[in-house]
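User: Before I run my own analysis I want an independent prediction to cross-check against. Here's the chain; please return only the structure tokens and, at the end, one sentence I can use as a sanity check.
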Amino acid sequence: MAHQLRAPGSKQQALAGIAEALAFPSWFGGNLDALFDCLIDLSWLPEGQHVLVWTGTRALAEADPGAYAAIRDTLVDALTQRPLLRVVLVD
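Assistant: Structure tokens:
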């Protein structure tokens, strides 16, 4: 199942967009630790493969390179724990 995130321009927009795209539960804390915790869980989604497609990655990378790198690193770390999640970053 594909989940879409489009061109967030800030760290908070990116976190909120990922949370919305993957239907995170209400307890999602809106920070990188909570992002990681939710990404390795995903128990609220149907079983099977899930793909997060993040388009317009350049918007955040240019606006806040540190935030982009931190979110990207968190995604990579979570993917090593959650083999049924894939992330596609599209410029």
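Sanity check: The longest strand covers residues 50-55.
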